[in-house]
Amino acid sequence: MAQAPVWLTYGFTYLAAAVIAVPIARALGLGAIIGYLAAGIAIGPWGLALVSNVQDILHFAEFGVVLMLFLVGLELQPSRLWSLRRPIFGLGTAQMVGCAALLWAAAWAFGLPWRVGLVGALGLALSSTAIALQVIHERNLMRTDSGQKAFSILLFQDVAAIPILALLPLLGVAARAAELDHPHEVQDLLLEAAKILGVVGAIVLGGRLALRPLLRWIAKSKTPEIFTATSLFLVVGIAMLMLSVGLSMALGAFLAGVLLADSEFRRELETDIEPFKGLLLGLFFIAVGMSIDFGVILRTPWGMLALLLGFLGIKALVIWTLARVTAMPYQERPVFTLLLAQGGEFAFVVFQAGAGFRAIPAEMASLLIGAVALSMLISPLLLVLLDRVLLKRFATLKTAPQAQEISEPQSAPVIIAGFGRYGQIVARMMLAQGVPATVLDHSVEMLEVAHTFGYRVFYGDATRVNLLRMAGAEHARILVVAVDAPEQSLKIVQLAKKHFPQLQIVARARDVTHWHALRDLGVEHVEREVFESSLRTARTVLELNGLSPQEADTLAERFRAHNMALSNRMYEHHNDREAMIAVAKQGRAQLVEQMAKERQERLAAAEAGAGLPPEVPQAPKAP
Length: 623
Known about the structure:
mainly alpha; six-stranded parallel beta sheet; disordered C terminus
């Protein structure tokens, strides 16, 4: 009987472990990450020993983190990334410096050599990007204050890993200063810096000039599998470029994602890469579980426990302090602290490289790697415990058993995405008129409010094509986009336009910029969320100021018509800021001038004793 090749045997082993462990972990309420880690422990050297080449698998599985950061980059337009520059370099620097300084001081207090203490402090100061971002996305925290700050710190850590790795060979030699004075060493360092700048510049220029034409050309072939292959080729190629100059693969992939965030292929790239990212991230967590060296733990159990609790406690203290100083909402601080207190996957690389350069002893490197792996194992468990403890204290952190997911296709003619203060009014009107509507919302808290008042709202993120399909988007007539976040709103509209072109879309616009973006996507029915209520308030003020209700109503209606016409004129120039501002100023001046003229006419007529008809004279067409 022929023997199965190694890759097939290992592949079967990984899939079987994941298929068994992850559903069990989910059923116990522990989350998928714990399931993957447990599966890795079970099949690793200290479990059933079904897999031996753990490090090779870990290196391969790190590509899941690369794909994840590419997808994160696709969600961040350059303008939004620029707006995060202060938390990235401010909070990121404070976290790295604060954690590393205290950890180094603790190592020195325990009598470790300064070199060993510094390497350990720098490695332990890093956090797990894979676990943190996975939890942030699972809990929909990316748009919260804690999610934005956690992401900023994680991004800074990816950048900080570059000088940390560059420092290791210098710490591994006794005469560091003498080596740097050697002309050949200085020349080599300058050459490396030039290579780094060249590669980063090539990625930036390539993303601006070459990638979009290439993707357009590939898309014209109308071969979906080739576009998928191109997406993977793009990420793999950038990762290889970054590795060639000793930079982080994940950082390069993130940069490429940001450069493509404004492209028309953003959603297609997301759809193609998402399945690969999920599988490779699962493999990464399995590899982390396999990499835990229980031999080191068993030899020095109390030392490992002290190291684990010590570095988690020191990091938690620094991170909680940062959260408090930056006025983060109190209920968001525990999760924020725990996500960043754990060790990170990049610490494996730092400690292994440190041992290779003899900056730290091999035994110490194994101890540190074990502590980091254990922290990554217990952090998801602590998150589960944290949720269950906070359930009693914060009403906003309820679990999702009450969140009803769509289990079978719906057939209502109207779909409402978002059940916040805006979507609720639309849903109530539909209910009052007997119009069936399928309502979607990804906030568990909002769903519980809806169920309390008797509404049937389904749990789910409307930016998922499969969920829209289950909600009946293929047969529905109208899609109401009532979500709060403009980015999410635009994503839903793009998906609906592409996959369900028969839908008539009615969208809520947060402001004029959002209104313009929706119009660019071809949405004709767009309502600004506070326009009508603001207009009614202005009408009330006019009445209180002496106008009759009929006059106030007429003026409000005329202002509405003028504003709509002006908005349409401004839209024609919304890509030219100066021209748009000029049109807005001209329209507002004309409105003020016309209404002032009519006030003078009314005063003159009143003085002449002629009076005025109840209606205010109709204004000429708005410019």
